[in-house]
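Translate sequence into structure tokens.
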Amino acid sequence: MSALPAVGDLLARAHVVALPLATRFRGIDVREAMLLEGPAGWTEFSPFTEYGDAEAATWLAAAIDFGWNEQPKALRTEVRVNATVPAVAAADVPGILARFAGCRTAKVKAAEPGQRLADDVARVRAVRTVLGPEGRIRIDANGAWSLDEAEHALHALAEFDLEYVEQPCASVAELAELRRRTHYMDVPIAADESVRKADDPLAVARAGAADLLVVKAQPLGGVRRARELVAAAGLPAVVSSALETSVGLSMGLALAAALPEPAFDAGLGTAALLAADVVADPLLPREGALAVKRVVADPVALVRHAAPAARRDWWLARLRRCHALLADGAH
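Result follows.
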């Protein structure tokens, strides 16, 4: 990686946007992000607002790497992607899936605060009805279930032939025990938060607590670092997004294209959840796939969706703090 750009250079290139979502997701209706145009192209810095500076600094490292450095060689020109179904009512599922043209796989959010397992079952049943028996369904609980709740949920959802369950429990120990308890069910367990939020992202692989990893370029420090992690873990990997703009998704595509031939569709179709984007031609699924390419921010969109002054100032201050952590080697 090249030298860290000066903070003043980053600040001068920064555009902060606030994009409305088509459907409420992760408890938010608006996705904020910072876009930067580096020597290598447009890049994105968009850790969620509740993340602390130490975690957010990793996202900044990824943004700088993608905008200032040459990326690993792409091994393919397109990447198949899944549909993403938020924790909506079952009746809303067909409308959500219609936004993901040609996708043969759906990731369904589960364990939403304030909802019950019956809501998850109804949502997954609606997805199965739309996709038919040949479609693939994976569920994501974001670590919200206890061990016993996760085991009960897998039994309740077994009839829908799950492709895998993503982060059913929060801890590595719980994932390992759930995997032991439910091995006979043949539902693979994927680790997400146990990788990207862990002090030791390889601990889950060493503990035999997951069958596959979910990896995201920004939270893991960029394409190169994420690819190295996958190689070191020795497990299959699914590249996913962090609800980014099309600029951030292009970073995810660079990662997915640089990995060995994937066994699973990538979770990079989430521009379909946005009601607006920062490019003229958003990275939306076409026949279930996305073309691997860099994208260019649209100046008109950057102005139209510019965040309010107070929010822009908040992001610029965050950029300064995270840059200081990178410069000090404290990250």
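Note: The first strand starts at residue 14 and ends at 25.
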